[in-house]
Amino acid sequence: MKNKFYKYIENLQNTITSTLEKVDGLASFKEDIWVREEGGGGKTRVIENGAIFEKGGVNISSVHGELPEVLRKQFGVEEGNFFACGLSLVLHPINPFVPTVHANWRYFEMYNASGEIVTQWFGGGQDLTPYYLFDEDAVHFHQTCKTACDRHHPDFYPKFKKNCDDYFWNAHRNEARGIGGLFFDYLKETEDFSLENRYDFVTEIGNSFLNSYVPIVEKRKGISYTAAQKDWQEIRRGRYVEFNLVHDKGTLFGLKTNGRIESILMSLPPKVQWKYDVYPEENSDEAKLISVLKNPKSWV
Amino acid sequence: MKNKFYKYIENLQNTITSTLEKVDGLASFKEDIWVREEGGGGKTRVIENGAIFEKGGVNISSVHGELPEVLRKQFGVEEGNFFACGLSLVLHPINPFVPTVHANWRYFEMYNASGEIVTQWFGGGQDLTPYYLFDEDAVHFHQTCKTACDRHHPDFYPKFKKNCDDYFWNAHRNEARGIGGLFFDYLKETEDFSLENRYDFVTEIGNSFLNSYVPIVEKRKGISYTAAQKDWQEIRRGRYVEFNLVHDKGTLFGLKTNGRIESILMSLPPKVQWKYDVYPEENSDEAKLISVLKNPKSWV
Predict the structure, then answer these.
(1) What are phi and psi of A27, to 5 degrees?
(2) The pTM is what?
(3) Residue B187: helix, strand or coil by DSSP?
(4) What count of CB pairs under 8 Å joins A to B?
(5) Which residue of A99, A103, A121, B289 has the lowest C-beta tally within 10 Å?
């Protein structure tokens, strides 16, 4: 399974980066191949200063070795080895009317002292962070997620949609990071689902990504915007940074276990502002966004 | 002691903000008075878009009530009340040749169920974060700190200077946030020092602040700079954000105990950049800064 899923994310990285390069039309991805001292490595692909994408990364990694201490504690085991591989992407567009998107799909195996697999699971999801909210974009993104989920189980979309709203909650701001999408973890083999079923589900989600996002980019990329709207985007990007550095378990795990810093922090936006005590005007487009972030809603 | 020290920081806030307004010459501090639901409150003073200071805050607060859970855990007590007051400041200048500065001086009391003081202490310090390093500025800042310390005990400066280097360490980047200064905590009454002695020491440090920083501002504020040098400052400000949101105990404590978010996060710089994998050219001024941040040195 690990070889099969790694092969899948390798292909998906190629598909996503080549499509995004066509969408951008100006910049191309720069690839960095890196090696992890304790085992494994990754392929980081970063795009900067494009016509559409101000900054973004589509990274894969495959790491293995002894379980880091934080994971031993989390899983309540004394020792053991692990394997993990996944694809992570974040795209920060220039135009404040084009939303930021994040996605991650991953697979994990844990071994006992004899090297046998003790447990194995899939995790991941994707979520959208608009700066100006178009209801039809939110509906399109969620509908694409739901359609892919529904092919596997009618409970998946409602469950993973709620997980996503819960996870990407910027608690200290009392608001969501964005308008959500899907978040799932510990998708193991069960009576109802074989590991093969899990693979089919996660890859279906991965395959749906470009359809969930690219049409929104195409629709909004040409809207002209003011300096004040760009400022609003950069201020909201500050909330993205706050979430990733204060709350995001994946980012903090990477920072505290000697991960490759530049690959982890490629998720941070290119230009960000923090102003003191900014509140949008009542009934403005900016206020409409905040109101939805404070009370996540059902889109489909 | 709590009334005496609060009176002191109230006066110090006035002295510092009025002096900084004169230094800036354009912008003035905007005051927000806030109340903490569980007891106490604060006076936040923020300056933005000045001639010298792009953004900054000089805040005082005085809070009391039941010990928050994180503190009960940290101090190993079941229950109890506390009182804490302090002054916190951060200044982010426009000109990349003028360093950012941070300072904080505080006093803490803890009570038992009968309301008697169980323990009480002072804490705080100040540290400098240059974007371009002038050795003579670092020496001036540290010499001012050392002179104030030496009036109280010859061990204070070396000890508190090392504490500062240890505390403001951006572990995931393997570099210091800046060139340090002083950091001290749990300055309690001992055989050698009465609480009155501790007060005299902390207020001596607080009183030395303007002398440690303002001459550096005056000396560097007129240097002209390029867009590339401003970019470098904004990229380095990203490291400041990373430290404050990932490692700084005070910030995380505030975010996780329902502190006043806008007062806590006024420490974040106004405009920040994250670029992928930036390294300065060998032997450049930027490389000289990094080399000192990687290996904190003795300045006096």
Answers:
(1) -90, 160
(2) 0.95
(3) strand
(4) 77
(5) A121
